[in-house]
Predict the structure.
Amino acid sequence: MDSFSPEIWQSLGLTIELASVTTVILLIIGTPLAWWLARSKSLWTEAVAMIIALPLVLPPTVLGFYLLALLGPRPVGVLASLWGGRTLAFTFAGLVVGSVLSALPLVVQPIRNAFAAVGDRPLEIAATLRASPLYAFFTVAVPLALPGIMRAAVLGFAHTIGTFGVVVMIGGNIPGRTKVLSAFLFDFVQVSRWREASWLAGGMAMFAVSVVLTLTLIDKYSRRRST
Amino acid sequence: MRTATPGRIEIAFSGGITSFPVDTHLSVPAKGVAAIFGPPGCGKTAVARCIAGLERLPTGFCAIDGEVWQDETTFRPPHLRPIGYVSQEASLFPHLSVRRNLLYGAPKPKPRPIAFDEVIELLDLATLLDRSPSHLSSGERQRVAIGRALLSQPRLLVMDEPLGALDSCAKREILPFVGRLPEKLALPMIYIGHDMAEIERFADYLVMMERGMVTAAGPLHVLQSDPALPIATSREAAISLDAVVSGYDARYGLLILRLKGARLLVPAPPLAPGVHQRLRISACDVSVAREAPRAGSILNVFPARIRACLPLGAAEITLVLALGTGGSGAEILARITRFSFDSLGLKAGIDVFAQLKQVSLLSASEPPLQTIAASTPTAEPGQASAAA
């Protein structure tokens, strides 16, 4: 363990920070988006769902490449100029944008399914009890879909912890600023530091096991509640 | 542009929500219980959903007691309609306790004029309050659903087959509670059902529907004895009448009830004079005689005039009788055999004597729930039967 440089702890902190910020943003964007996808009868829903699902099949480096182009300096980087002219490439904010986009399908799908499973009925009943659509959303739809939302949050968090391709493309692997754990692992292997690499890989594997366990517990909890 | 009439519930919906076009126009008093009766799948639920605003038909009209909820230019979304809506499934919120379910739609400072404690007592919910909906029986769930609707302080209560999803045991348990609502609350109700036995108990006004259309509408007892309608000639034909208590014979335990054209004696517990009491007189409990019986055990014998004779199958005939000399009183039904009909020489317009073997008192003072559960399954709760 002593062979780990302080940088790795810095990287661990950075990774957790990135995953936490990303998860919060994912839930803020993903929940209303999933709600719209589950409830709207518009033809646009399927088109939007397809675009959101794209990062699942796109090589992460390809997604990273396009994001780098869009977030980088002008003339190509349109997004950064909207932000205030500065480039977002190789910054923490850029990393957040990249990980949000790549985890979005993993978060939206379970929430969408959970909202669809709630169905019209509880919301109609809430409406006949004077609940405005917004009030019914927060007091009926969200609580009933909570297991799905929790599952989505765990998935989004875990995915971001392990993200690599997008992050390396946008973040540029700058120690202390954009160098996350998976990038560290890659570096260890590059320089043949197998001992450190196996510790790191083992730790991340343990984390993955705990994530799967958490998801199982959420399922169990929601099943017990619904009976 | 239609205008709303105070004191009426006016509804006009046409369009296709169901597999067939609905074309329902009705106007019922905004007072008491109006029942919408029809076979399953005749569009009753569609009408209820339109009233609640859950379904929107572009040309619909809906006005409750002078207040327009929907017309050509207005459409109030469901949450802005002061409605209490109870459907077949209780649809309680599974993530909230019974108490929080009940208070979900209640105005925040203090539920008035329908108070929390009053609803708890009316529906006997006190022991359920801190439970989770998943631990309730189907009958209990439906009681909570009714309480929840009442506490949202509606100006109209719509009940769409509230007993439809219940088994007969749960139905028996909850019927007295539903029957008590119109007595205790000054709230207009629309009760949707396909079971005449439920409707007879508490409806004042009846609307009959078939395939999305209203086929008949009027006060319940008028339609029950209308020779042109199928309910008068059904096997379970009966008349529901509201009588006034005029006295009590304590020596023999007989309640004296006044009806238009008759004075009834019914063995029953005493009631205060002047109280209105719903009676049910079944067609099969009424027989007729050409002459006044001299000596018999039947207490309630009245002169009556035959209004109509309706054949029922090959062997029986249902008579529509108007009580009172000259037939000026309330109408009841009598079922007799065709053999008796011919041998007595009966026909429409002649005077006979109606003999009421049994008169049932409905609703008034229900026995408490415990005795219902303990009673034999064949006994109808809240229905004191009087055989003479």
